[in-house]
Amino acid sequence: MDTLVERAVAGALRDGGDEAVRLYVAACAERMAPLFVGLRAGVPGREADLDFYVESVRDLWYADRPLAHAAERVRLLERFPELQPNEEGITDVADTYAFLAALCLRYALLAHGSGNADDAESCGHAVLTSVGMLDRNVAGAGFLADEQRLQSLLLSDDISGLWDASVTAGRERLRAVLGHLPGR
User: In CATH, which superfamily holds the domain spanning 7-178?
Assistant: First the structure.
């Protein structure tokens, strides 16, 4: 399975300028937000992290200008347990998807603050990795193809439905993950 950002999308990120990069990472982060929020809601002591995550994703949609204090937000995010080194690695389903969602936001914040296409591609890679895992674990799922389609919207002249499509896709992915958690 190819989990890399498609060449045409990578080219558009490099050629499209800072606003294209910012829009791309905002949409990627939006699609991953339900995974982080849904999998960490109710975890004691994580309320501030959830608020921070939601506020950061919301602020990423201001694609016409760099995100204020992006570097500080990255430093705060890097304190999240999901991004801390762990000798045992990540084996739990919920922890895996929460990690990928946190990683996606990290790269989204970096790219939004700098306009760096490499960070934007890394953001897209995190999303593609998560949906690729979902496709392997959910019979008949087409999350990877849907994600590639959504990422390709960057190449389109009409991105009017990008936010709605991203919200819907994120919710569908959360439902699929929740259906594969032990005890459900």
Answer: YP_001051499.1 domain like (1.20.1590.10)
